[in-house]
Amino acid sequence: MERTTPKVDTKNMTVRVSTALVFGVFFFSLLWLGDRPWAPWTYLALMALATVMGVRELTLMARVRGFNPSLAAGSLVGCGILAHFFLATGSHDPLPLWLVFAAGALVIHFGALFFDPKLEEALPSQAITWLGALYLGFGLGFQQKLFMLQGTLPKTGSRLILALFIITWFGDTAAYFVGSYFGRRKLAPKVSPKKSWEGAFGNLGGNLLGAFLMQATVCPEWSLVDVVSLGLLLGIAGQLGDLVESTWKRSAGVKDSCVGVSIPGHGGILDRVDSLVFAAPVLYAYVHFVHGFN
C-alpha cells in the first residue's frame, strides 16, 4: 500500500501542549497535596464540575438530532452517583445507589411530565438523560474512589490517579504520532476515519511505557505482572472509551463534543475524559480484586 503523508497539525499541537501544561501543573499540584484534609473535597468539586460539563455536552449533541434530554436532571443524578462514591467508605454507605437511582427516576421521568415541551421524544430524550448521568457519574465516580484509597504508601490515591492519567495520556500521545506517521490500515472507518490499527498498537506501546514509568517513580509496589497487565488493560479500555464517544459524535454529526465552548486545542470535556471514564473503573477493579484495596 502507498504510504500516506503524515498529517500533524503543528499549530494546534502548540495550543494543545500549552493548555495541557496549564492543566498539568494544577492537577499535579493537587495530587502532591493529596493527603491534606481538604484534598478529597477539592477533587470532588473538580469531578462534579466535569460531570455537569460532560452532561451538558451530551445534552447539546442530542439536541442537534432533535431530542430533548434534561441537562438539570442528568447533572443532578450524575452528581448524586458521584456523591455516593465520595461518601461510601467500607461498610458505611449513607447514600446507597438504590436511593440515588430511585430519586433519579423521579427527577428524570416525572420531571419530564412538567418541564419537557417535546414529550413526543420522551423515550430517547429520557434515555439519553440517564446515559449522561450514568456515564459521567460512574466514570468520574471511580476516579473519586481511586483518589480516596489508602494503602501502605503515603498518598496512595494520588499515586493511582497519577498512574491512571500518565498511562492513558502516554497511550493517547503515542497513538496520535504513530497513527499520523505510520497509519495505513483503518481501525473503525465508520466511526473515526483517522484511527488506524498502527495507531492502536502505538497506543498500547505508550500505555506500557507509562506503566513502567509509574512503577519506577510513584508505584514501586507494582510487580512486572502488574505493569504489563495495567498497561494493556487500561490501554484497551481507554481506546474503547474513545471509540464509544466517537460513535456519539458521528451520530450527532459534530466534530468535537463541545458544541460551542471548548478547551483550547482539546475539544470538549468528553473528548478529554472519554478514555479515562472507561479506564478508571478498570484500574479500581484491578487494585480491588488483585491488591485488596477498598
TrEMBL record:
It catalyses: a 1,2-diacyl-sn-glycero-3-phosphate + CTP + H(+) = a CDP-1,2-diacyl-sn-glycerol + diphosphate. Signal peptide: none annotated. The keyword Transmembrane applies. Coiled coil: none annotated. It is found in: Cell membrane. Its EC number is 2.7.7.41. The keyword ATP-binding does not apply. The chain crosses the membrane at residues 12-32, 38-55, 67-89, 95-115, 127-148, 160-179. One of its GO terms (molecular function) is nucleotidyltransferase activity. Pathway: Phospholipid metabolism; CDP-diacylglycerol biosynthesis; CDP-diacylglycerol from sn-glycerol 3-phosphate: step 3/3; Lipid metabolism. Keywords: Cell membrane, Lipid biosynthesis, Lipid metabolism, Membrane, Nucleotidyltransferase, Phospholipid biosynthesis, Phospholipid metabolism, Transferase, Transmembrane, Transmembrane helix. It is a multi-pass membrane protein. Belongs to the CDS family. This is Phosphatidate cytidylyltransferase. It comes from Geothrix oryzae. The lineage of its organism: Bacteria, Pseudomonadati, Acidobacteriota, Holophagae, Holophagales. The gene is cdsA.
